[in-house]
Amino acid sequence: MASLFRVGVCRFVGKNGNNLLLKNDNPTHLLRTITSKTMMKGDRPKKPEPYPYNTKKYGFLKSLIDRTTPRMDENSKLLVVEGPIAAGKSKFAQELAKEMGMLYLPEANLDMYYINDYGFDLRTLDNEMPEGCKSFDVMDFMRNPQNMLTARMQLEIYEIKFSQYIDALAHILSTGQGVVLDRCVLSDYVFTEAMYSSGYLSKRARRKYYEYRDNTVRELLRPHLVIYLDMPVKKVMENVQKRGISWEKNSPVITPKYLECMEKVYKQEYLKTISTHSELLVYDWSEQGEVEIIIEDIERIDFDNYDYQDPKMKDWDLAREEDWNVLRRLYADQKEKLMSLFNIPCYEVPELMIEAEDADRYYQVLQSAPGMKYDKGYNVDQGDQGVLLKSSNPPRNTLPLRERRQL
């Protein structure tokens, strides 16, 4: 048998190796509020240019001369928009990011995984794949939730959300620009619980999911602000029918039981837990609302109004510039080490395993696809140039900004 997930070990690098090398280790004071572009009037303090973390490593020696906090300002924050299905989160998150001058990251989805760097959709290879290795995404789940591949799909979505969250943290620390996420990895277990309560996940698969979660989320900085767009289950059902996505409106998954479980876990567990660290704003979004009003509420929040014993914002309360630099190197340069935390054997969960012969066939078919034979930048048949002069890969694998297909 062969696991669908890689096997490996991740260890943190030491944080205290360069204490004596930094003459001035005090970080730049970060402003306590968030400000919209409308309110950013007058001359702004000059900041260093955004660091090109996608193409250039930020190593230890570089960290001695390129400080992290001088790029950061009052809007160097992580905001997450949460809510039920069909609540209008994506539209709201995009408008919020635009008004705040932040980067919008669409909800992590399997299109980011199945469509490779050259635009080839790996799902078109399904006819050549063994049954247990075929693609299975949200559209397939909505049509056939009892499929044996449901557990694998949920773990893959969690892994993609984790990857995207690392990208968000790397972007903030490397460029100083804030990020608005449409849902995030920290709330993903809401879907796991809804699937489990409806009988779509086995007890063993659910237990394995939380093993992955417990092994990974501790490495992340929690968001500064979570905005929850609330909506009654009845209204969610109406919106699903109104927006008319074929695989969603006729799905056996979208039932009052499934949506009520999501709402319960969101409100009684996730929001309650995350609010111990992050600021939380909740709005009745049944009839939508005005983004400008929410922005005014955000601008009133004092993100520094806590004493040293308060758990609020503790993840972002770093006393030394070196600590900021270490985190920046972790998220920008060491993403692969963080992703290796998913290398947990799944032998006790049959639906997460495939036969060795099937795995061999899977990799043979995969490597025959356009752009999959070599690493990105080394596929001459896809137009890559200067291959003989290249000596290394890009410093990190950043997920594309790709919205999920709406068919």
TrEMBL record:
Compartment(s): Mitochondrion matrix
Main localization of the protein described in the UniProt heading: mitochondrion
Cellular compartments per GO CC: mitochondrial matrix
Recorded superkingdom: Eukaryota
Region (Disordered): 385-407
Pfam families xrefs: dNK
GO biological process: mitochondrial electron transport, NADH to ubiquinone
Domain Deoxynucleoside kinase: 79-307
Alphabetical UniProt keywords: Electron transport, FAD, Flavoprotein, Mitochondrion, Respiratory chain, Transit peptide, Transport
Cofactor(s) the protein needs: FAD
Functional description taken from the UniProt entry: Accessory subunit of the mitochondrial membrane respiratory chain NADH dehydrogenase (Complex I), that is believed not to be involved in catalysis. Complex I functions in the transfer of electrons from NADH to the respiratory chain. The immediate electron acceptor for the enzyme is believed to be ubiquinone.
Family: Belongs to the complex I NDUFA10 subunit family.
Protein's name in the database: NADH dehydrogenase [ubiquinone] 1 alpha subcomplex subunit 10, mitochondrial
